[in-house]
Protein backbone atom coordinates (compact mmCIF):
# COMPACT_ATOMS: atom_id res chain seq x y z
CA UNK A 1 0.00 0.00 0.00
CA UNK A 2 2.84 2.36 0.82
CA UNK A 3 4.47 1.73 -2.55
CA UNK A 4 1.22 2.61 -4.28
CA UNK A 5 0.98 5.93 -2.43
CA UNK A 6 4.61 6.80 -3.25
CA UNK A 7 4.11 5.83 -6.90
CA UNK A 8 0.96 7.97 -7.09
CA UNK A 9 2.68 10.98 -5.55
CA UNK A 10 5.67 10.67 -7.90
CA UNK A 11 3.34 10.26 -10.87
CA UNK A 12 1.38 13.41 -10.01
CA UNK A 13 4.57 15.36 -9.30
CA UNK A 14 6.11 14.44 -12.66
CA UNK A 15 2.81 15.07 -14.40
CA UNK A 16 2.60 18.53 -12.83
CA UNK A 17 6.14 19.39 -13.88
CA UNK A 18 5.49 18.19 -17.42
CA UNK A 19 2.28 20.22 -17.63
CA UNK A 20 4.01 23.38 -16.41
CA UNK A 21 6.93 22.87 -18.77
CA UNK A 22 4.85 22.37 -21.90
CA UNK A 23 2.16 24.90 -21.03
CA UNK A 24 4.53 27.88 -20.97
CA UNK A 25 3.16 30.46 -23.38
CA UNK A 26 5.63 32.43 -25.47
CA UNK A 27 5.41 36.09 -24.58
CA UNK A 28 5.98 38.72 -27.22
CA UNK A 29 6.05 42.49 -26.98
CA UNK A 30 5.41 44.99 -29.73
CA UNK A 31 8.60 46.27 -31.29
CA UNK A 32 7.02 48.55 -33.90
CA UNK A 33 3.77 49.35 -35.66
CA UNK A 34 5.22 48.42 -39.06
CA UNK A 35 7.44 45.56 -40.17
CA UNK A 36 9.68 46.43 -43.12
CA UNK A 37 10.89 43.21 -44.81
CA UNK A 38 14.54 44.28 -44.57
CA UNK A 39 14.22 44.77 -40.83
CA UNK A 40 12.52 41.41 -40.30
CA UNK A 41 15.20 39.71 -42.41
CA UNK A 42 17.98 41.37 -40.38
CA UNK A 43 16.42 40.29 -37.08
CA UNK A 44 15.96 36.69 -38.26
CA UNK A 45 19.56 36.58 -39.55
CA UNK A 46 20.67 37.43 -36.02
CA UNK A 47 18.66 34.54 -34.61
CA UNK A 48 15.90 36.57 -32.98
CA UNK A 49 12.38 35.18 -32.69
CA UNK A 50 10.10 37.74 -34.31
CA UNK A 51 6.61 37.53 -35.71
CA UNK A 52 4.54 39.83 -37.88
CA UNK A 53 0.88 40.14 -37.01
CA UNK A 54 -1.95 40.56 -39.52
CA UNK A 55 -2.12 44.30 -38.82
CA UNK A 56 1.54 44.64 -39.91
CA UNK A 57 3.01 45.15 -36.45
CA UNK A 58 6.35 43.57 -35.50
CA UNK A 59 6.60 41.57 -32.28
CA UNK A 60 9.77 40.29 -30.54
CA UNK A 61 9.97 37.32 -28.22
CA UNK A 62 10.54 38.44 -24.64
CA UNK A 63 13.42 35.95 -24.27
CA UNK A 64 15.32 37.70 -27.08
CA UNK A 65 15.13 41.18 -25.56
CA UNK A 66 18.79 41.22 -24.42
CA UNK A 67 20.02 39.86 -27.77
CA UNK A 68 18.06 42.57 -29.56
CA UNK A 69 19.75 45.28 -27.49
CA UNK A 70 23.20 43.82 -28.24
CA UNK A 71 22.80 43.28 -31.98
CA UNK A 72 20.49 46.06 -33.07
CA UNK A 73 21.16 49.12 -30.95
TrEMBL record:
Domain of life of the organism encoding this protein: Bacteria
Species in which this protein is naturally found: Brevibacillus porteri
Protein name, as recorded: Uncharacterized protein
